[in-house]
Specification:
The protein is an all-alpha fold. Helix content is 75%, strand content 0%.
Length: 336
């Protein structure tokens, strides 16, 4: 088992990852007067640069050769790159256009959309509590649509694009850093071409608003890669159930920033919609924790039954075993 220090470090990495994702709405407005599309293009270009440096330092390039030999995986990574481009672009635009609260809603309902996609696309079976959560989530979207006077398309686009991204990543099954490198490599040429076109048209802001602004645009690569590295460090140290709970930190921070820092309006119907979403997530979390407890208890019962039915040892104990022995030297934990 992993040591307590490892688990504590994993928890801190997880809080760091989701904390950075939750506080990133504070960063995008600093990049104005750059538009959302220019910021998005810089994010793609500089992310690849940061990830390439990290891979060079770690000397992790063997996966590239294997990936090039698998056209199906390359196709899936292209799909992942496309949907995450949509996700990033809509999110940056939403934050810089004063829709932080609606953007946070997208990540609140993302687990519900993921479950719905599992039913529709993967033919998964849901437990009653999961059905209840999805139904409550659907009701919340209706309430919010009535409140907004339109469907919450920002939230729905973010939720569906990120759920699709997660589904594709699950099928690709490569590491987080490697996956980001492959995706940004696909995004790189279109993004660079767009930035060069902006420069040729005189529409680029890079380098025309001081060195500080240029440095902030370059820092989009760090803003993208840093939380992903922390997430990867957390994923190997803490249980998946813990990560599942930590994922709500990001939209909670975004929601609070939208209200307390950006002073976005929260009329009664919007509060009602969010309350329904939180009720759905409470059902989902309760069901996940209960199922995890039952699974763990069942595994312990099976192990106990196996010990009871195991044939007793009939061989006599050696005489030496009846005398006190010095304790064996502690073995290093190789499961960490």
């Amino acid at each position: 088992m992993k040591s307590q220090n490892e688990q504590r470090a994993g928890l801190l990495y997880g809080i760091g990852a989701y904390g950075m994702w939750g506080l990133v709405p504070l960063f995008w407005p600093l990049l104005k007067p750059s538009g959302a599309m220019e910021i998005l293009a810089h994010r793609m270009v500089w992310s690849l640069a940061i990830v390439a440096v990290a891979l060079l330092a770690l000397k992790q390039w063997g996966w590239v050769r294997e990936l090039v030999r698998q056209p199906r995986k390359l196709g899936l990574i292209s799909v992942a790159a496309t949907v995450i481009t949509v996700n990033w672009g809509v999110y940056i635009w939403a934050v810089n256009s004063g829709h932080v609260v609606e953007a946070s809603l997208g990540y609140f309902i993302n687990p519900l959309v993921t479950i719905a996609m599992g039913v529709l696309l993967l033919k998964e079976r849901l437990r009653p509590a999961q059905w209840a959560a999805v139904g409550i989530g659907f009701g919340a979207v209706l309430v919010l649509a009535i409140g907004y006077g339109r469907p919450p398309w920002i939230s729905l686009t973010l939720a569906f694009s990120f759920a699709t991204y997660g589904l594709v990543k699950k099928k690709v099954n490569i590491g987080g850093l490697e996956s980001l490198a492959a995706e940004t490599a696909i995004q790189f040429l279109p993004a660079l071409g767009f930035l060069l076109w902006l420069g040729a048209n005189g529409s680029s802001t890079f380098g025309f608003h001081g060195a500080g602004h240029a440095a902030l645009l370059a820092a989009t690569g760090v803003v993208t890669a840093a939380p992903l590295v922390c997430f990867g460090a957390a994923a190997i140290r803490v249980p998946l159930s813990t990560l599942g709970l930590l994922q709500y930190l990001a939209p909670v921070f975004q929601f609070l920033l939208g209200i307390l820092y950006f002073h976005e309006a929260m009329p009664a119907e919007r509060w009602a919609g969010f309350a329904l979403v939180w009720l759905a997530l409470t059902c989902l979390t309760w069901d996940a924790l209960r199922t995890a407890r039952r699974t763990r208890a069942q595994a312990l019962r099976l192990a106990a039954d196996a010990l009871k039915t195991a044939p007793p040892e009939t061989a006599p104990l050696p005489e030496a075993s009846l005398t006190p022995q010095a304790p064996a030297a502690a073995q290093p934990d190789r499961t960490a």
